[in-house]
Known about the structure:
By secondary structure, the protein is mainly α. The protein has one domain. It has helices spanning 2-44, 81-101, 106-114, 147-238.
Amino acid sequence: MIREVVFELKRDYNKEFAQLDAFKQEQIYIIKEKNEAIMELQENLKQEPTLYVAKTDPLENPKNIFEVKDDEIKVEKYLTAEEKERLAEEERKRLEREAKLKGDTVGMRGLMTMMNGELIFKKEKNLLEAEFTKEEWMNKPEDEMNDDEKQRLREFQQKEKEFKEKQRKAWEFTLKNIRNEIVDIEYKFEERFLSLNKKRLFFEQRILEQELYMIRLIMMMHESRETRASKDKYTNEIE
């Protein structure tokens, strides 16, 4: 009975731990998609990309103990012709993936849908550098324009300036929201992690209690056998 209780406690905890690990992997994927959006926004804003990098501990994956990293090898690695060909193929595929990421990725399409298509992330359509479609006459020197053309040109330039400023503010606002969403994801995960950690301490206490019961039961059985043996010996001596 005691062993069954210990088994059930460990089983229940391991189940919750597996759920938390799956939740973590899901959140890492979501953050990766948000990082892609951040890169596009910061490029549009002509800012240096500053992305969120999830920190992991090597002990999170026990298999890391058996993994040898490249920086741990001090000698040049010998590659066969087959290995060189395989690495070249992997590099080609990597470049293809990067090229696709520059276009309309699944994550970007999902974000565009979520944002009702209000944002444009494609690099080739950087609206801070784009200009409104000018009429041909707007390209001639201003001193060759009449008063009406000069007025229309100033109106066009003002609208272009206002649009770019409005777009810049929209990008900055969206960038701030995305960063806040990442902070919120991290906070919610830490909440679940701390809750599970408290539960682990509770489960460990219960397991130790059950193991203590087992030890006491064994001690009682041992004392009972010794008492019975002493009684039998004393009875035999009297007889």
